[in-house]
Amino acid sequence: MPAKIGRTAQTLNEWAKKAEVDGGRRAGVPTDVAEKLKGLERETREFLQANEILRKTSAYFARAKLDRCGKP
User: How far is CA 44 from CA 7, 33, 34, 39, in A?
Assistant: First the structure.
């Protein structure tokens, strides 16, 4: 049967397991929750990168201000 639809038996088995998890008939993380988590992890990485950029920028301008204030 798997050869007729162009998929391996393992792929079909994984699809069946995922359908059972999504349907609440098997323990595991449902697809929608996994996708939401993945999106939140990506968003967190982006926020952390932006925060690092802002931190470095703030330090740069603070040093520049100190340099200007310290010169006669």
Answer: 36, 16, 15, 9
Question: 65, 58 in Cβ contact below 8 A?
Answer: no
CB 29 within 8 Å of CB 21: yes
Q: For residues 6 and 15, what is the distance between their CA atoms, to the nearest angstrom?
A: 14
Q: Over the chain, what is the mean pLDDT?
A: 91
How many angstroms separate the first and last alpha carbons of the chain? 85
Confidence grade of residue 71 (pLDDT, cut at 50, 70, 90):
low
Rounded to two decimals, the pTM is 0.66
DSSP state letter for 21: H
